[in-house]
Amino acid sequence: MAGRAARLVLLAGAAALASGSQGDREPVYRDCVLQCEEQNCSGGALNHFRSRQPIYMSLAGWTCRDDCKYECMWVTVGLYLQEGHKVPQFHGKWPFSRFLFFQEPASAVASFLNGLASLVMLCRYRTFVPASSPMYHTCVAFAWLSGR
Q1: d(C-alpha 33, C-alpha 13), whole Å
Q2: What would you measure as the largest C-alpha separation in the chain, in angstroms?
Q3: pLDDT, tens digit (0-9, with 9 covering 90-100), for 92-124
Q4: Around 43, how many Cα atoms within 13 Å sit in the side-chain half-sphere?
Q5: Which among 98, 45, 147 has a CA at the least distance from the CA of 106?
Q6: Cα–Cα distance between 12 and 6 in angstroms, integer?
Q7: What is the overall mean pLDDT for the chain?
Q8: pTM metric for this prediction
């Protein structure tokens, strides 16, 4: 019982220490996001946002809230640089300029190439290993799931 209580206290302490990235915690960023959402993400303003949002952005799932976070991230980065501070992380990631609907184009390309390599290896595996082999179906299922 004491061991369980100690683990619970340790877990609660670790959760209390966990916090967002420096940029997420910045009051300027939080206030900017709240203000942007209030002004742009409800009622007629939301309809206006949707009407001017490029189709590829909406197909990729970018929402008004995501756009507010993105724009406010750059406002906060500008203030940090203006004050001579280092660029902070936001949501555990470094700020990157958006290209089309990719906020991190290099990461997206690397992920695509990783998925392509997984697909090539799956095709080679299915070509050279008979379907009657033990664990064949398990390996194929694992490849499909991990290649996502």
Answers
A1: 29
A2: 66
A3: 777 776 666 666 667 777 888 888 888 888 888
A4: 3
A5: 98
A6: 10
A7: 78
A8: 0.57
CA 53/CA 43 separation, integer angstroms = 16
Residue 28 to residue 77: CA distance in whole angstroms: 10
- What gap in Å lies between CA 130 and CA 140, rounded to an integer? 12
* Contact by Cβ (8 Å): 65, 37: yes
Tokens of 98: 């958006």
CA atoms within 13 A on the CB side of 2: 0
What count of residues does the chain have?
148
Q: How far apart are CA 33 and CA 30, in angstroms?
A: 5
Contact 75, 87 (CB under 8 A): no
Cα separation, 64 vs 44, in Å, equals 13
The residue type at 116 = L
Residues 131-148 have a mean pLDDT of 80
CA angle 19, 25, 28 (to 5 degrees): 175
The residue with greater pLDDT, 2 or 42, is 42
